[in-house]
């Protein structure tokens, strides 16, 4: 078993640690007794700041659960999770909500936008909720980066799937969260629209220094990442740096055959 | 069969979502069944009572009414000589006969001069203790009255007023005041419908009530064995000749029953009317529920269609669900209805009417009607949503969930709604400008109906507009949460419209009635100010509580009074110049000073002239109908007196509130045609103080009138207040009954919100994920609820005030001259509705806040 923990190093974004989030011995189990299912089995992981991390693994491997736990959406059965230096395991709902609002961004597979709000309102929603004024210059830059300048007044139903996901990306970026979590953000898109969205994510890491964690089962999507973590049966079984789509695909095939023979 | 199975499964799966609709059906059905069971039980109770108390044959004096009621305008019951008893005893087939005396126009007081009458309006009866009474009552302490200083009291009254043996009791009758001590207390063995009963021995009763012995009001006859009542009645009647009322036990019971029934029917239909309104409101709730269930299930229905279900099958499956809902709601409703009836009986017991649950009468028609109503209404209400479900295309299975707006239906709806509203407003306008009460009220009804339906139809459009305005006024304060609440309320205007409309109906009625009631008070006050030239009004608190002659003498002797006017009402048949006979009319006889006391406007002649000898006045409508002019002669046949030919000297205006439809004549004129002992007692006495003596005179008059606690003396201020209180009480009762409809409407708001929350599970999850706190989420839902409630209130109050104002304009023909909008009530209702909105959101907001973020996101 490979541990995905790196030795903490300082640098990157000033005096902050180079690790944006970390998990220590995280266990997530559902049910009890004979029906107990362990989704995460003592997972240790560090998410590097200013990097694009992909989490891969077959269905039921626990990759979504890991992301939900890291993002403070789900509670853990055991272990600790830190966002920067804040331990989020054990936080009350109120604090967690604030944390999600102020320090985390989300992009889901679908249904990212409120149908009653237009694109711009959706983008500024987290800041509106927090009662903060959006940073105008930053907002303009984000909007420009995702290429939505002409469609800010449109309602989600008037946008294509790709455009909707780009709005979701813009929303995640606009509040300048410490980490953006993406749950198969391109899962519902065709390859061209998907490539567009992934491109934006990549650029936001490279140009804006954003930290991104993305769950995916698409090798092409994973190839946009700096680092890929492989999950199987609730454990981190492998990782890969600077992957290409072919490498990822090979590794996946490898797991599949291993899964079949074992 | 599969249709039934899927319907059943859906019904069970969504039972939570159906619960509130079921409650709405339950409440409406329960109210209907409760009313029916209660009135049936009252009927049974009275039936038993009347059966038990009537003797085989009863002989009453000629002037007695069918129900044996002895009240008359003279304050004395009609009587017959004691010799009748001997005649009756001599008739073959009579086993025994007993003469009794009783009266219901006596004021009874205790030692502290407090009135011992039931507060419920049931009669106070003073009578002789007879064998007939002994059959239905049991003396629980003391003994039956003997001699002039003894009186026996029924137990309910004794308990209520804490009367003990030996307590002093005063009986104020037209003859005078008689004092006696409580000698015994007797309990009813049948249900006592609330009357307070006092027994004297026969001689004392005769003297106290009539002023002389040797007279009876009734003779109770018991038949010998084997003699049927009918034959006995015939024989007794033959022996007595004319001038008596002879009836069998059955006839007496039937007559009594009939009078009770007519009263109960009024109550029954009034309450059923309110139940009907609740049903109407419930329909909105059911429509909304099924629309939302269908919308939420669009993909599912699409799948059913895709794999081969026909439209009809889908349609039917929804209707079957409605049927199930109707059955469940109605069955529970029937049960709850019986509970309501029992509750009402307990309530009546608290008011002095002892009803026994042994008499609980549930006719088979009651549950049948309840079930039928509940099921039919539910299925009808679900028809439209079911049809919409049938129209879902198989493609819906593939599309993302979400209900696309139906733009075309919107346009049709807008046109239809505006047309209806326009027609309604036109109807109201015609009604307001109408100069004929009859045609006007027809237009009013049409206008009310059209505007109501129009508002309901156009509701969604109004919702879109009004909610935006409300958003600007109310919600912007709350920032993004307010904005989202506004958008949520706007996202499905049809739903918001229907939910608001349900609330609108109840509140419109409240607003309308409050405007009419308040205008009534204002108009009466206005007219009092303008026309009443007297200071004090002395009158009884019941129709047959008279100002007795002794009291009139004392009032006249009260210092500080400039003049005192007596006022009586006489029954008469009138023959008009056109040869028509108006049966059972009344003549208002007063002293000539009455023309100054109440300066009623005339359209012809001078009112003062009507008080000249052999003169009278008639009212405008009467004059028009019968072609009467000043100088015409009307033949007046006074009941109990002779026939007079009176000359019409004045025609009074119909645009009055006080004494509407009165025909005046002077007391001396009337006295010429009435024997002194048949002359009615004073209904009202007006007293006017000398200048500057008002306060002192009022105090003195109060002291004088205090001797008879059945009477009240009021100055103009108090009179206005009493009038206001009276109308206020009536309105409160109606508001209380309308509360049912409003409760159902509030359930509708809760229901809409609860279903919306379920529908927006993913959105809520998303918002929570990106940082919306629970508190903010709850506030958002509360604000949405408040907006819907306030929207409904605005529509309802606006509509109701329009109706009320129109009704006032129409009633102006009848003297309702002043439009008074009771702003405090209107504003209170408006603010109250906002709170209702907050209240309605409690549970949905709580549930939304408790939703697990992950589950919310994961919902598919």
TrEMBL record, chain A:
GO molecular function, one term: ATP hydrolysis activity
ABC transporter domain boundaries: 21-258
Organism domain of life: Bacteria
Keywords noted in UniProt: ATP-binding, Nucleotide-binding, Transport
Keyword field contains Ligase: no
PROSITE patterns xrefs: ABC_TRANSPORTER_1, ABC_TRANSPORTER_2
Recorded GO CC terms: membrane protein complex; plasma membrane
Cited InterPro entries: AAA+_ATPase (IPR003593), ABC_transporter-like_ATP-bd (IPR003439), ABC_transporter-like_CS (IPR017871), ABC_transpr_LolD-like (IPR015854), MacB-like_ATP-bd (IPR017911), P-loop_NTPase (IPR027417)
Name recorded for this polypeptide: ABC transporter ATP-binding protein
UniProtKB/TrEMBL annotation, chain B:
GO MF annotation list: transmembrane transporter activity
GO cellular-component term (any): plasma membrane
Keyword Cell cycle among UniProt keywords: no
Domain of life: Bacteria
Coiled-coil region(s): none
Location of the MacB-like periplasmic core domain: 19-238, 499-702
Topology of this chain in the membrane: Multi-pass membrane protein
TM spans (from-to): 269-295, 318-342, 362-384, 414-432, 444-477, 498-522, 733-758, 783-803, 823-846
Pfam families registered for this protein in UniProt: FtsX, MacB_PCD
Region (Disordered): 60-80
Keyword terms, alphabetized: Cell membrane, Membrane, Transmembrane, Transmembrane helix
ABC3 transporter permease C-terminal domain boundaries: 274-394, 737-852
Entry keyword annotation includes Iron: no
Subcellular location field: Cell membrane
InterPro entries: ABC3_permease_C, MacB_PCD, Macrolide_Exporter_MacB
Family assignment from sequence similarity: Belongs to the ABC-4 integral membrane protein family.
Entries under PANTHER family matching the protein: ABC TRANSPORTER PERMEASE YTRF, MEMBRANE COMPONENT OF TRANSPORTER-RELATED
Protein name: FtsX-like permease family protein
Species assigned in the record: Streptomyces misionensis
């Amino acid at each position: 078993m490979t541990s995905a923990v790196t030795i903490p190093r300082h640098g990157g974004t000033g005096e902050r640690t180079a690790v944006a989030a970390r998990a220590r011995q995280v266990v997530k189990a559902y049910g009890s007794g004979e029906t107990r299912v362990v989704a995460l089995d003592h997972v240790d992981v560090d998410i590097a700041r200013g990097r694009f991390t992909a989490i891969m693994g077959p269905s039921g491997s626990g990759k979504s659960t890991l992301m939900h736990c890291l993002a403070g959406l789900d509670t853990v059965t055991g272990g600790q999770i830190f966002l920067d230096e804040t331990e989020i395991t054990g936080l009350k709902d109120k604090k967690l909500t604030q944390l999600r609002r102020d320090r985390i961004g989300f992009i889901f597979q679908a249904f990212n936008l409120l149908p009653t709000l237009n694109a711009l309102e959706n983008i500024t929603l987290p800041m509106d909720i927090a009662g903060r004024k959006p940073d105008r210059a930053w907002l303009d830059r984000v909007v420009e980066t995702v290429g939505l300048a002409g469609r800010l007044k449109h309602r989600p139903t008037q946008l294509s799937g790709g455009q909707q996901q780009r709005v979701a990306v813009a929303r995640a970026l606009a509040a300048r969260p410490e980490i953006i979590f993406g749950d198969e953000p391109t899962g519902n898109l065709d390859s061209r629209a998907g490539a567009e969205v992934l491109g934006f994510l990549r650029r936001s890491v490279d140009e804006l220094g954003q930290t991104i964690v993305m769950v995916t089962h698409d090798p092409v999507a994973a190839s946009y990442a700096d680092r890929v973590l492989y999950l199987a049966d609730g454990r981190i079984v492998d990782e890969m740096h600077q992957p290409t789509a072919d490498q990822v695909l090979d590794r996946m095939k490898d797991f599949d055959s291993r899964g079949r023979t074992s | 069969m599969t249709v039934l199975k899927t319907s059943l499964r859906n019904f069970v799966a969504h039972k939570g979502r159906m619960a509130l609709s079921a409650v709405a059906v339950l409440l409406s059905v329960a109210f209907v069944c409760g009313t029916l069971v209660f009135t049936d039980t009252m009927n049974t109770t009275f039936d038993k009572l009347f059966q038990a108390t009537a003797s085989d044959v009863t002989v009453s004096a000629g002037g007695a009414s069918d129900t044996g009621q002895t009240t008359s305008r003279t304050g004395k019951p009609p009587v017959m000589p004691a010799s009748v008893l001997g005649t009756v005893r001599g008739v073959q087939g009579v086993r025994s006969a007993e003469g009794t005396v009783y009266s219901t126009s006596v004021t009874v007081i205790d030692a502290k001069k407090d009135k011992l009458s039931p507060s419920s309006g049931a009669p106070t009866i003073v009578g002789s203790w007879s064998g007939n009474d002994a059959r239905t009552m049991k003396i629980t302490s003391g003994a039956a009255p003997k001699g002039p200083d003894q009186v026996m009291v029924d137990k309910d009254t004794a308990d209520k007023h804490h009367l003990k043996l030996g307590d002093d009791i005063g009986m104020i009758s037209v003859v005078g005041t008689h004092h006696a001590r409580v000698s015994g207390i007797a309990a009813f063995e049948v249900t006592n419908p609330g009357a307070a009963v006092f027994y004297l021995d026969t001689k004392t009763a005769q003297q106290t009530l009539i002023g002389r012995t040797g007279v009876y009001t009734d003779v109770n006859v018991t038949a010998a064995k084997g003699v049927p009542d009918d034959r006995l009645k015939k024989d007794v009647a033959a022996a007595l000749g004319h001038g008596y009322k002879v009836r069998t036990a059955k006839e007496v019971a039937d007559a009594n029953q009939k009078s009770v029934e007519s009263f109960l029917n009024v109550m029954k239909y009034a309450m059923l009317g309110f139940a009907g309104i609740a049903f109407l409101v419930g329909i909105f709730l059911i429509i909304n529920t099924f629309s939302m269930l269908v919308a939420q299930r669009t993909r599912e229905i699409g799948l059913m269609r895709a794999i081969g279900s026909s439209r009809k099958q889908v349609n039917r499956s929804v209707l079957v669900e409605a049927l199930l809902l109707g059955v469940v709601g109605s069955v529970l409703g029937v049960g709850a209805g019986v509970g309501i009836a029992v509750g009402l009986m307990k309530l009546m017991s608290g008011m002095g009417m002892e009803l026994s649950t042994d008499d609980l009468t549930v006719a088979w028609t009651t549950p049948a009607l309840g079930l039928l109503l509940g099921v039919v209404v539910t299925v009808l209400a679900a028809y439209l949503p079911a049809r919409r479900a049938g129209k879902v295309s198989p493609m819906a299975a593939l599309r993302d969930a979400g209900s696309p707006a139906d733009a075309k239906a919107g346009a049709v709806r807008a046109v239809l709604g505006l047309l209806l509203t326009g027609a309604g407003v036109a109807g109201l306008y015609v009604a307001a400008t109408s100069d004929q009460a009859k045609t006007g009220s027809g237009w009013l009804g049409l206008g009310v109906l059209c505007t109501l339906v129009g508002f309901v139809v156009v509701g969604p459009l109004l919702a879109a507009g009004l909610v935006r305005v409300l958003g600007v006024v109310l919600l912007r304060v709350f920032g993004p949460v307010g904005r989202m609440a506004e958008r949520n309320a706007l996202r499905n205007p049809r739903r918001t419209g229907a939910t608001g409309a349900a609330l609108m109906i109840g509140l419109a009625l409240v607003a309308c009635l409050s405007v009419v009631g308040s205008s009534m008070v204002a108009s009466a006050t206005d007219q009092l100010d303008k026309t009443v030239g007297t200071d004090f009004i002395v009158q009884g608190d019941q129709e047959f509580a008279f100002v007795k002659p002794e009291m009139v003498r004392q009032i006249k002797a009260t210092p500080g009074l400039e003049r005192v006017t007596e006022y009586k009402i006489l029954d008469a048949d009138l023959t008009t110049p056109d040869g028509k006979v108006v049966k059972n009319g009344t003549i208002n006889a007063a002293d000539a000073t009455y023309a100054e006391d109440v300066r009623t406007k005339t359209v012809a002649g001078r009112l003062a002239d009507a008080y000249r000898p052999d003169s009278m006045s008639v009212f405008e409508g009467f004059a028009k109908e019968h072609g009467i002019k000043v100088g015409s002669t009307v033949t007046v046949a006074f009941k109990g007196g002779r026939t007079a030919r009176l000359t019409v000297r004045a025609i009074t205006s119909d645009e009055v509130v006080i004494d509407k439809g009165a025909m005046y004549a002077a007391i001396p004129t009337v006295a010429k045609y009435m024997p002194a002992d048949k002359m009615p007692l004073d209904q009202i006495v007006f007293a006017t103080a000398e200048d500057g003596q008002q306060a002192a005179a009022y105090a003195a008059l109060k002291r004088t009138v205090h001797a008879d606690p059945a009477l009240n003396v009021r100055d103009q201020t108090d009179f206005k207040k009493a009038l206001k209180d009276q109308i206020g009480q009536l309105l409160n009762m109606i508001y209380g009954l309308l509360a049912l409809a409003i409760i159902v409407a509030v359930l509708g708001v809760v229901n809409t919100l609860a279903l919306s929350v379920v529908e927006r599970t993913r959105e809520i999850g998303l918002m929570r994920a990106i940082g919306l706190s629970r508190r903010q989420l709850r506030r958002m839902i509360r604000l949405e609820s408040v907006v819907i409630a306030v929207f409904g209130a605005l529509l309802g109050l606006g509509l109701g005030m329009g109706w009320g104002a129109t009704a006032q304009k129409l009633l102006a023909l009848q003297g309702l001259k002043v439009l008074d909008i009771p702003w405090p009530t209107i504003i209170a209702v408006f603010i109250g509705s906002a709170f209702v909105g907050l209240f309605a959101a409690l549970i949905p907001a709580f549930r939304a806040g408790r939703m697990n973020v992950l589950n919310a996101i994961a919902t598919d």
